[in-house]
Design a protein that fits this description.
Blueprint (H helix, E strand, L loop, with lengths): L8 E9 L8 E10 L4 E5 L6 H9 L9 E8 L2 E2 L5 H7 L4 E4 L3 H4 L6 H11 L5 H14 L5 H4 L9 H13 L5 E5 L7 H18 L2 E6 L2 H7 L2 E6 L2 E7 H6 L4 H8 L17 E14 L8 E14 L3 E5 L6 H8 L7 E6 L2 E2 L3 H8 L3 E4 L3 H4 L6 H11 L4 H14 L16 H13 L5 E5 L7 H18 L2 E6 L2 H7 L2 E6 L2 E7 H6 L4 H9 L6 H8 L1
Parallel strand pairs: 3-8, 3-9, 6-7, 7-8, 13-18, 13-19, 16-17, 17-18
Antiparallel strand pairs: 1-2, 1-4, 4-5, 9-10, 11-12, 11-14, 14-15, 19-20
Length: about 550
């Protein structure tokens, strides 16, 4: 075998233990994979499949001794990483192996400027003159497509968007031109357009530098965009592997077929027709502006998050608010449930004009409820699940025993047993916590449900289950729903009508199947084009030939 074809990374029969009391003994069991220079290998699986454990093992970041390799080898450029000490691993990290984490805001130091954080990579691997370091940092920021590097180098992370922060993380990982880049779910919670930009950026950098990429994801749509090779993992074991075209076009394992089937098709159906013509919600010329105070040396900033937003919603219908981060869709949602004041316009609920503040909450009387993007952050970690669900009805005057009975009934409805009522939020998976969030919202017997990106951070299989639950709930309770999402595949499955938002304005509105079939606005077409598309089996196999 020629030197050019020697694998950058070889993992052979790797096993990683879990602490006592875990749901299984091994996080990873007998995993084997190989990655060549210039290739992208995608490791796919649900949460808990062990894919991120492999990445952390390669980087030497496992929380030993509680989680540690118990067998196998990890060969990087011929050296077994499991035999190296921490000083040797520290020398490899950043210089020869780079890593991009899932959530850049937690990986970046919030009190350090962007340039200082990238500069730490140079400082850790040898002294570089200040002028040369700044030049290379600016070049790295420009290389990942960030606008105005001269200004961004002195900015703090909170001033950047999610996509820009992820680009900074990629710049940090690649600034020393490592041979291997590990990307752990780097696009999971990003807008489809930002995700498309990040995926294209990884492909472009790989073409120019010949970097080997180990890309961890749960989305086969992403896999179809970038993968050369695919490894599918389930509960710690590799259940399928091979060239991407073969795995996508002719999957052999039932679990692989299940993951592929869980991807929303993006094909919309005609809207739900109901006999009830009651307008549950009427939004008329809603405006919302955020203002930041200026100072003696800095001008104040004003951002119009919602500009003359108008729409009607009938009982049993679902309206999708679609757009990128910063489009204003979540601001509209927060105004609808009374969590943010609006500047002008009217919100009519069941024909009544909703005022602001406390008057809003009294007039809505719990009949407008919200399901949040991060269910863990919205649940009190000290409250048992039963108490969290029953708390709202009790506050509205319902008898405690009756409220708890309702909570148990709702837990059953969302697919959790009555024993879940006595457990705490941390004892559940992300998908289960989102089910609990839905149950808590339904406990108030709402007539309007506002769901703000409720499935954006979930595995595709769990996402499919939660979307199915939303559909069942809507049908059972005849709810009107406002469904906020950046993923048009999800909107196609869930929504009767779509309002596409850009910079605070609705640029396109109509029945979902019509908007997606024949978009009229260039921004809508841009969103549709950015959605990762899974090639049909025949196309995938033709590409492999």
């Amino acid at each position: 075998m020629s030197a050019a074809k020697q694998p950058v990374l070889e993992i052979a029969d790797l096993s990683i233990s879990l602490p006592k009391g875990a749901d299984r003994a091994l996080a990873v069991e007998g995993a084997t994979l190989s990655l060549l220079p210039g290739q992208t290998l995608c490791v796919v699986g649900e949460s808990g499949s062990g894919k991120s454990m492999i990445a952390n093992a390669v980087m030497g970041l496992l929380p030993r001794p509680h989680v540690a390799p118990t067998g196998g080898r990890i060969l990087f450029e011929g050296t077994d990483l499991l035999q190296l000490g921490e000083p040797q691993m520290r020398e490899l990290r950043g210089r020869r192996i780079g890593m991009v984490f899932q959530e850049p805001m937690t990986a970046l130091n919030p009190v350090m400027r962007i340039g200082e954080q990238i500069g730490e990579v140079f400082d850790a691997h040898g002294a570089v003159p200040a002028a040369e370091k700044r030049r290379r940092i600016l070049a790295a920021l420009a290389d990942v497509g960030l606008p105005d590097p001269e200004q961004l180098i002195d900015a703090y992370p909170f001033r950047l968007s999610g996509g820009q922060r992820q680009r900074v993380m990629i710049a940090c990982a690649l600034v020393l031109e490592p041979a291997l880049l590990i990307a752990d779910e780097p696009t999971t919670a990003l807008d489809v357009t930002t995700q498309a930009q990040i995926l294209e950026l990884v492909r472009d950098l790989q073409r120019r530098r010949g970097t080997a990429v180990l890309f961890i994801t749960h989305d086969f749509g992403v896999v179809s965009e970038i993968a050369d090779q695919v490894v599918v993992m389930q509960t710690g074991r590799v259940v399928e592997s091979g060239p991407a075209a073969r795995v996508l076009g002719a999957p052999r394992h039932p679990y692989t077929r299940k993951l592929i089937a869980a991807i929303p098709t993006g094909e919309a159906q005609p809207p739900t027709r109901t006999d009830d013509d009651t307008r549950v919600l009427q939004v008329q010329d809603l405006c919302k502006t955020y203002k930041s105070g200026g100072s003696l040396f800095r001008r104040g900033r004003s951002v119009q998050a919602a500009k003359n937003i108008s729409f009607d919603l009938r009982s049993g219908e679902t309206l999708g608010l679609v757009g990128e981060s910063g489009s204003g869709k979540s601001s509209v949602g927060r105004c609808l449930v009374g969590l943010a004041p609006f500047d002008s316009g009217r919100i009519l609920f069941q024909g009544r004009n909703l005022s602001q503040g406390e008057a809003f909450r009294r007039s809505a009387a719990g009949k407008i409820q919200m399901v949040f993007q991060d269910p863990y952050a919205s649940l009190n970690p000290r409250h048992r699940i039963g108490a969290a669900i029953a708390g709202g009805p009790i506050a509205q005057g319902l008898d405690k025993s009756e409220a708890m009975a309702r909570a148990l009934e709702l837990l059953k409805l969302v697919g959790l047993g009555p024993d879940a009522a006595q457990r705490y939020p941390h004892e559940f998976s992300g998908g289960q916590r989102q089910r609990i969030g839905i149950a808590r919202a339904l406990a108030m017997r709402p007539e309007l449900l506002v769901a703000d990106e409720p499935v954006s951070a979930l595995d595709v299989s769990v996402q499919a289950q939660v979307l199915e639950l939303f559909a069942e709930v809507r049908e059972k309770f005849k709810l009107a729903m406002v469904f906020i999402t950046h993923d048009l595949r999800v909107a196609a499955q869930m929504c009767d009508h779509i309002a596409v938002m850009q910079r605070g304005e609705v640029v396109e509105y109509g029945e979902t199947h019509e908007v997606l079939r024949d978009p009229r606005h260039a921004y809508t077409r841009k969103l549709i084009d950015a959605v990762p598309k899974l090639a049909a089996p025949a196309e995938a196999m033709a590409a492999a030939a």
